[in-house]
């Protein structure tokens, strides 16, 4: 899958699942002399602003990267500087329930991405979920996209940096049957998915 296809599915999901979200593709940021671009930026109101800042990784992006360190360096830069930009700054709100922003590093559910993540599971699993943008609570998620072939509202993520590490029984049990991710996991060597076997 191309990143354009992934972005289209993400945009369709937010439009179907949320009331009037502001969605922007290839959103630039510039803070503290650090510039970058995120693949998808979504701001919705709950009624407080809640952001989703999304980096998408397709087969092409994984193949072009020099390794997981490069992918994570780009993601960490986004976490650090996106909301430090005045145009995207988050303000504390007394009524806020949950994180004000979610930083998402989302991989396509393809054999290439599954193999890449499997061989770098320790690095991706080490991303701390809890964070902050100034004094505002944030959450970071490293995950595979799921539900790409269903209704836009059904698009989801299967995290690998939370309670269920990649390849763990809990992670594998959460993989939807007959999904692209399930098929990709079957196509990658068992000793890569579960090196303990």
End-to-end Cα distance, whole Å, is 30 Å
Q: Which series of helices and strands comes N to C?
A: HEEEHHEHHEEEHHH
Q: Kindly report the average pLDDT value.
A: 92
E-strand count: 7
The low-confidence runs, each spanning 5 or more residues with pLDDT under 50, are none
Number of helices: 8
State the assembly state of the protein chains: single chain
Q: In terms of structural class, how would the helical and strand content be classed? A: alpha/beta
What sort of overall outline do the alpha carbons produce when their principal axes are compared?
A: globular
Q: Sheet with the most strands?
A: 7 strands, mixed
Structure write-up:
By secondary structure, this protein is α/β, with parallel strands linked by helices. 34% of the residues lie in helices and 29% in strands. The protein has helices spanning 3-17, 59-64, 68-81, 111-119, 121-125, 169-174, 180-187, 190-193; strands at 22-31, 34-45, 49-57, 101-107, 130-133, 136-146, 156-159. Strands 1, 2, 3, 4, 5, 6 and 7 form a 7-stranded mixed beta sheet that branches. The chain is globular, with a radius of gyration of 17 Å. The protein starts with a helix and ends with a helix.
